[in-house]
Protein backbone atom coordinates (compact mmCIF):
# COMPACT_ATOMS: atom_id res chain seq x y z
CA UNK A 1 0.00 0.00 0.00
CA UNK A 2 1.76 3.19 -1.09
CA UNK A 3 1.89 6.00 1.39
CA UNK A 4 2.14 9.71 0.80
CA UNK A 5 4.93 11.17 2.85
CA UNK A 6 5.25 14.82 3.56
CA UNK A 7 7.98 16.55 5.54
CA UNK A 8 6.40 18.26 8.49
CA UNK A 9 7.55 21.85 8.70
CA UNK A 10 6.60 24.71 10.86
CA UNK A 11 8.15 27.49 12.82
CA UNK A 12 7.48 28.66 16.32
CA UNK A 13 5.09 27.01 18.68
CA UNK A 14 2.44 26.34 16.00
CA UNK A 15 4.52 23.84 13.99
CA UNK A 16 5.29 20.21 14.75
CA UNK A 17 8.59 21.31 16.23
CA UNK A 18 6.64 23.30 18.80
CA UNK A 19 4.47 20.29 19.57
CA UNK A 20 7.54 18.15 20.22
CA UNK A 21 9.12 20.90 22.35
CA UNK A 22 5.96 20.99 24.48
CA UNK A 23 6.68 17.39 25.46
CA UNK A 24 9.73 18.62 27.38
CA UNK A 25 8.33 17.55 30.76
CA UNK A 26 7.89 14.00 29.51
CA UNK A 27 10.58 12.49 31.75
CA UNK A 28 9.12 14.22 34.79
CA UNK A 29 5.74 12.76 33.88
CA UNK A 30 7.22 9.26 33.64
CA UNK A 31 8.82 9.63 37.06
CA UNK A 32 5.54 10.81 38.58
CA UNK A 33 3.58 7.90 37.12
CA UNK A 34 6.24 5.39 38.20
CA UNK A 35 6.24 6.80 41.77
CA UNK A 36 2.45 6.38 41.99
CA UNK A 37 2.87 2.75 40.93
CA UNK A 38 -0.15 2.65 38.65
CA UNK A 39 -2.04 4.74 36.18
CA UNK A 40 -2.12 5.74 32.57
CA UNK A 41 -1.49 9.02 30.80
CA UNK A 42 -2.44 9.77 27.20
CA UNK A 43 -1.61 12.91 25.23
CA UNK A 44 -2.50 13.60 21.61
CA UNK A 45 -2.96 16.43 19.17
CA UNK A 46 -3.69 17.35 15.56
CA UNK A 47 -2.10 19.93 13.31
CA UNK A 48 -3.09 21.43 9.92
CA UNK A 49 -4.31 19.97 6.66
CA UNK A 50 -8.04 20.14 7.37
CA UNK A 51 -8.81 22.53 4.52
CA UNK A 52 -10.57 25.06 6.77
CA UNK A 53 -7.89 27.64 6.11
CA UNK A 54 -8.03 27.07 2.34
CA UNK A 55 -4.97 24.80 2.40
CA UNK A 56 -5.27 21.11 1.69
CA UNK A 57 -2.76 18.52 2.76
CA UNK A 58 -2.10 15.78 5.22
CA UNK A 59 -3.27 16.26 8.78
CA UNK A 60 -0.64 15.53 11.41
CA UNK A 61 -1.97 13.39 14.26
CA UNK A 62 0.39 12.40 17.06
CA UNK A 63 -0.08 10.94 20.47
CA UNK A 64 1.36 8.68 23.07
CA UNK A 65 0.12 6.64 25.95
CA UNK A 66 2.16 5.94 29.07
CA UNK A 67 1.19 3.10 31.40
CA UNK A 68 3.05 1.57 34.27
CA UNK A 69 3.64 -2.12 33.72
CA UNK A 70 4.88 -4.88 35.97
CA UNK A 71 7.67 -3.81 38.29
CA UNK A 72 6.81 -0.12 37.92
CA UNK A 73 8.41 0.12 34.49
CA UNK A 74 6.68 2.68 32.22
CA UNK A 75 5.35 1.36 28.90
CA UNK A 76 5.19 3.99 26.14
CA UNK A 77 3.15 3.53 22.97
CA UNK A 78 3.02 6.08 20.15
CA UNK A 79 0.10 6.43 17.79
CA UNK A 80 -0.82 8.72 14.90
CA UNK A 81 0.80 9.44 11.55
CA UNK A 82 3.91 11.38 12.61
CA UNK A 83 7.11 9.36 12.38
CA UNK A 84 10.79 10.27 12.43
CA UNK A 85 12.96 9.98 9.34
CA UNK A 86 16.62 8.93 9.39
CA UNK A 87 17.87 12.28 10.66
CA UNK A 88 15.18 12.52 13.35
CA UNK A 89 13.00 15.08 11.57
CA UNK A 90 9.22 14.57 11.83
CA UNK A 91 7.50 13.13 8.74
CA UNK A 92 3.71 13.03 8.26
CA UNK A 93 2.43 9.86 6.58
CA UNK A 94 -0.96 9.32 4.98
CA UNK A 95 -2.00 6.40 7.22
CA UNK A 96 -2.27 6.77 10.99
CA UNK A 97 -0.98 4.17 13.40
CA UNK A 98 -3.91 3.30 15.70
CA UNK A 99 -3.73 2.82 19.45
CA UNK A 100 -3.38 -0.93 20.11
CA UNK A 101 -3.39 -3.03 23.28
CA UNK A 102 -2.48 -6.73 23.32
CA UNK A 103 -3.63 -8.87 26.24
CA UNK A 104 -2.05 -12.31 26.68
CA UNK A 105 -4.84 -14.54 27.96
CA UNK A 106 -4.42 -18.20 28.90
CA UNK A 107 -5.31 -19.76 25.54
CA UNK A 108 -5.51 -16.71 23.25
CA UNK A 109 -4.32 -13.18 22.57
CA UNK A 110 -6.85 -10.35 22.67
CA UNK A 111 -5.91 -7.41 20.44
CA UNK A 112 -7.91 -4.22 21.04
CA UNK A 113 -7.56 -1.48 18.41
CA UNK A 114 -9.07 2.02 18.42
CA UNK A 115 -10.35 2.80 14.89
CA UNK A 116 -12.69 5.80 15.05
CA UNK A 117 -14.39 6.90 11.84
CA UNK A 118 -14.45 3.54 10.03
CA UNK A 119 -16.97 0.72 9.79
CA UNK A 120 -16.38 -2.97 10.41
CA UNK A 121 -16.55 -3.71 6.66
CA UNK A 122 -13.61 -1.34 6.08
CA UNK A 123 -11.26 -3.18 8.45
CA UNK A 124 -8.89 -5.74 6.96
CA UNK A 125 -6.37 -7.87 8.83
CA UNK A 126 -3.99 -10.68 8.03
CA UNK A 127 -2.09 -12.91 10.44
CA UNK A 128 0.97 -14.88 9.38
CA UNK A 129 2.56 -16.84 12.21
CA UNK A 130 3.30 -14.16 14.80
CA UNK A 131 2.86 -11.07 12.57
CA UNK A 132 -0.41 -9.09 12.49
CA UNK A 133 -1.01 -6.61 9.66
CA UNK A 134 -4.12 -4.44 10.03
CA UNK A 135 -5.52 -1.73 7.73
CA UNK A 136 -8.73 0.29 7.73
CA UNK A 137 -9.87 3.20 5.60
CA UNK A 138 -12.87 5.46 5.16
CA UNK A 139 -12.44 8.69 3.22
CA UNK A 140 -9.47 10.55 4.67
CA UNK A 141 -9.33 8.24 7.72
CA UNK A 142 -6.63 5.68 6.98
CA UNK A 143 -5.09 3.37 9.57
CA UNK A 144 -2.24 0.91 9.24
CA UNK A 145 -0.45 -1.20 11.84
CA UNK A 146 1.97 -4.09 11.55
CA UNK A 147 3.05 -5.71 14.76
CA UNK A 148 4.94 -8.66 16.12
CA UNK A 149 2.72 -10.75 18.38
CA UNK A 150 4.20 -12.34 21.52
CA UNK A 151 3.55 -15.85 20.15
CA UNK A 152 2.39 -17.73 17.05
CA UNK A 153 -1.37 -18.12 16.67
CA UNK A 154 -3.87 -20.32 14.81
CA UNK A 155 -4.54 -18.17 11.75
CA UNK A 156 -7.84 -19.76 10.72
CA UNK A 157 -9.48 -19.71 14.16
CA UNK A 158 -9.55 -15.95 14.74
CA UNK A 159 -12.72 -14.12 15.72
CA UNK A 160 -13.40 -10.39 15.72
CA UNK A 161 -15.93 -7.82 16.85
CA UNK A 162 -16.36 -4.09 16.27
CA UNK A 163 -18.37 -1.65 18.36
CA UNK A 164 -18.22 2.13 18.77
CA UNK A 165 -14.86 2.49 17.01
CA UNK A 166 -13.16 -0.30 18.96
CA UNK A 167 -12.06 -3.41 17.06
CA UNK A 168 -11.35 -6.56 19.08
CA UNK A 169 -9.52 -9.51 17.62
CA UNK A 170 -9.35 -12.82 19.48
CA UNK A 171 -6.36 -14.88 18.30
CA UNK A 172 -6.12 -18.47 19.63
CA UNK A 173 -2.54 -19.46 20.45
CA UNK A 174 -0.88 -22.13 18.31
CA UNK A 175 -0.61 -25.52 19.95
Explained architecture:
Strand 8 and strand 9 (131-138) form a beta hairpin. The protein has 2 domains: 1-95, no CATH class; 98-175, Immunoglobulin-like. The chain is mostly beta strands. The longest helix is centred in the first third of the chain and has 11 residues, at 26-36. The protein has helices at residues 16-21, 26-36; strands at residues 5-7, 40-47, 60-68, 74-84, 90-97, 100-104, 108-114, 123-128, 131-138, 141-148, 159-163, 166-172. A 5-stranded antiparallel sheet has the order 1-5-4-3-2. The protein has a 4-stranded antiparallel sheet with strand order 6-7-12-11, with no helix packed on it.
Q: Which stretches are poorly predicted, pLDDT < 50 over at least 5 residues?
A: 1-14, 19-24
Please count the beta strands (DSSP E, at least 2 residues each): 12
How far apart the termini lie comes to: 32 Å
The tally of domains stands at 2
Which structural class matches the secondary elements? mainly beta
Helix content: under 10%
Give the amount of beta strand, in percent: over 45%
Radius of gyration: 18 Å
Strand order of the largest sheet: 1-5-4-3-2
Number of helices: 2
**Main sheet, how many strands, which sense, barrel?**
5 strands, antiparallel
Mean pLDDT: 74
What is the overall silhouette?
globular
Q: What is the H-and-E element order?
A: EHHEEEEEEEEEEE
Describe the protein's topology.
Layout (H helix, E strand, L loop, with lengths): L4 E3 L8 H6 L4 H11 L3 E8 L12 E9 L5 E11 L5 E8 L2 E5 L3 E7 L8 E6 L2 E8 L2 E8 L10 E5 L2 E7 L3
Amino acid sequence: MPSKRSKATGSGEAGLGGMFKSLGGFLELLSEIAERGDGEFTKSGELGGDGKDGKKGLKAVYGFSVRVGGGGKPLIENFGNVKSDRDGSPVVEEAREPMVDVFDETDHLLVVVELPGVSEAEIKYEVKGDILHLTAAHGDRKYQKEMLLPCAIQEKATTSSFRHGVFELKLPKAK
